[in-house]
Amino acid sequence: MCVKVACVGGGPAGLYLSILLKRQDPSHDITVHERNPEGSTYGWGVTYWRGLLDKLHEHDPESARALERHSVTWNEGEARVRDLATRRDSDEGFGIGRHRLLEILAARARSLGVRLEFEHEITEGNLPAADLVVAGDGVHSALRGAHADHFGTELRPGRNHYIWLGTTKVFDAFTFAFVETDHGWIWCYGYAFSPERSTCVVECAPETWTGLGLDTANEVDGLALLEKLFADILDGHALIGRSSADGAAQWLNFRTLTNRTWSRGNLVLLGDAAHTTHYSIGAGTTLALEDAIALAGALRDQPELPQALAVYERERKAALLSIQSAARYSAQWYENLPRYMHLPPEQMFALLGQRHSPLLPYVPPQLYYRIDRAAGQLEALRRFKRWLGPRIARTVHARALASRK
Q1: Per-residue pLDDT tens for 373-395?
Q2: Do the Cβ atoms of 32 and 109 come closer than 8 Å?
Q3: Which of 55, 190, 294, 331 has the fewest C-beta atoms lying within 10 Å of its C-beta?
Q4: What are phi and psi of 266, to 5 degrees?
């Protein structure tokens, strides 16, 4: 249907969409425009799960095989609280370096005839002539920002501070470590993304951040402090900020992005330009690639562009409802961390795994733990728990909305 397509942003979503469209019709004229030099990207490793890999094998087996070949896997999670540790089985998880992921997708796109133009920034003032312009230029999307009122863009900052780091410590499980300081709790999520490196995301409440002096420390001093705090899990390995080409690693507040509508004429939002979900559920890359799959499918199946974009938006918004809810409750779990830290490690870890539950914030933690254990054995109680949680969540959410008016 679309003869000429311009994908603005060379991230996973834009690259994978270009691959799918070329596979659907090799005559499509597709260009991916990326403002940064090739090989320059932020971040360390990204995570995904078996369900995404199965979808990728279905839609483009070649890139899926390359992705799987260059990923590391884990089947366990570990939680460390003070000097105590507990480990349990988990779903199969995958980690891959963001650089390697983009290399794989860029090479596959080129092999299919997609043009990749790096160091080429596209704004509202120099939009390419195309049947479809895809804004895959991230949470700070310039194309979306030029029409923020139309899209109904809303950004909600989270309370906690976080920093995305690398380390030479290679974790053999998805690892959570919680450290108590004189200024409150600080914690990290660690997972491998190659045989030599892991990602380490550190998070804490604002009062802990300022109390520890992380708000004023330079990068070297800040990393040294974090290495000391997390010495037990790092085993003498270093934490690494961004490379000099990318600038210093920065503490951030996660911002949840939503848009009322995802298209304007022949311009459509994709990936982080359309929505974000809190990093603690590890779904950002998965959702971006699933956006690309849905948009490619809608463009293939619908006779006209407006219909295709409407179908894409409707399908993805529906799919995101439960994920966005899970991400919201996951972020809240960490923002209310002291509520759970008095529990024995195995109970705390069990509730960490239940942090997506809309019922957990409104039930005393130990009672919830007992209910959850019983629900695993009694089907009737499990059904009641699934019925009650969303109803409590909707009531609280409605009251919160009413209080804003």
Answers
A1: 887 655 554 555 555 555 555 55
A2: yes
A3: 55
A4: -100, 15
